[in-house]
Amino acid sequence: MDFRFLKDLVVPAQTKIVLIVMDGLGGLPIEAGGKTELESAQKPNLDALAAQSALGLADPVAPGITPGSGPGHLGIFGYDPLRYEIGRGVLEALGIDFDLGPDDVAARGNFCSVDANGNLTDRRAGRIATELNVELVNLLRTIKLDGVQVFVETVKDYRFVLVLREDGLGDALSETDPQRIGVPPLPVRALNPDSERSARLVNQFVEQARKLLADRQPANMIMLRGFAKRPAIPSYAQAFGLRAAAIAVYPMYRGLARLLGMQIVNVVGETIADEFTALEQGWSDFDFFYLHVKKTDSAGEDGDFARKAHVIEELDAQLPRLMTLKPDVVIVGGDHSTPALLKSHSWHPVPVLVYSQYVRADGIAEYGERACARGSLGCLPAKDLMPIALANAQRLTKFGA
User: Nearest Cα to 202, choosing from 190, 218, 216, 188?
Assistant: First the structure.
């Protein structure tokens, strides 16, 4: 969608749109012919909502492309992820309120586990507690690099942020995560001549970190990915004319929302129920609400089919609290698929429903992959969902005479 074109069609209205993103929602059956995690979950409220909705499958980026969480979210937020590429490091930094300058190079860090030969045994160091992360980050803060300011900040669990500050640093850098175990982390490579100095600096940082963490099991090494500078991107107010709010527990998703001009709503606690409480408390203040559920994705990455289904059931139990508020438009979907069978993100399109009084409801009383494949929305680019939401919220005027 060309935002310049859409901007001329956007009109104000007293309507409210809610986007629920269950991270990594899409799944696969464990056994051929079986049910997916979403299809297996007991979710009477989502199924009832599906009967009143238009259903479909959304491709986060493009058919056959496995997206990261950043591109996957950009798509469902209405932005073309191929045009607006945002590095994960920027999102993590903004998510913890780091004051990221225009020339800063940010990277997302993972504490990880390696064996005596330096080969990865756990890419997430057993999902260490945030308290241990803070202790290890204090160690990494002792690292000095010639002529560069170095910032290391805790994010959550096994994740941290590395920021290098110096004029002229390039951000075209390869990642150190090989995305599999049994091999060592990769050295950073410059992907263009302007990033040669950055690559040398990052490799120096990693080598010093390796020595500092050598005896700190299980988090005895680090990996870095998503190197980037802060990009220019239209805000939600500029693109869609919306006062937008973000309700998310995990910092990276707050960072992306903040980059798009959404106001971060404080969540007291970390449960899905706590997020719905924040939604209720902020209901009168915004036109658009993004509510993010993380644990569907982490359960999928852990290969825990039953736990992923249970997280979906937790969301389902809270859904009546939203419907009591009488939203004008509700979209339920995900940023990508994370089947427990694969223990990773995948290329599979994601089930999505669009509810409003103006949709042509498909009358399919089930929210699941195969049910959504029969829906009237078909298989559509995720970025097309926001114009559909705006239309159903009476926020787009007629195009042309």
Answer: 188
